[in-house]
Amino acid sequence: MTQNNIVIKDDCTTCGSPVEMGSIIDNQDLDLTIKLEKPDIDSQWQQMSEQLTQRFPEARMKILEHTSHYQVVISFSCGVEKILYQLEMLR
User: What does the pLDDT read at residue 55?
Assistant: First the structure.
């Protein structure tokens, strides 16, 4: 990926293979879909909503109801925000 005539590359710390940042960040992929089980929806939704708005105030959430679960769709303003949120969820 080239930005202002600077090539943005890094090497994998495990195997040493070169990684070009543009190949792993797709700035068109802005939506994250998460499945939540029905019995716990209120607590899960509240926690997710608070964490999301504190960290990414421009992100938007919508919830879709299905027979056995809910589907939360989070729309981020850029692909990097989506990746960061996913990584933070793993903690």
Answer: 92
Distance CA 80, CA 86 (A): 10
| Sign of the Cα pseudo-torsion (84, 47, 67, 77, in order) | negative
pLDDT of 10 reads 61
The residue segments making up the domain with residue 80 are 27-89
Q: How far is CA 87 from the centre of its chain?
A: 8
SS3 category, 56: coil
Domain assignment present for residue 17? The answer is no
pTM for this prediction: 0.67
Give the total number of structural domains in the chain: 1
Contact 73, 33 (CB under 8 A): yes
Continuous segment of H or E residues that includes residue 71:
strand 69-75
Residue 16 belongs to some domain of the structure: no
Is the Cβ–Cβ distance between 74 and 32 less than 8 Å?
yes
- Give the per-residue pLDDT at 54: 92
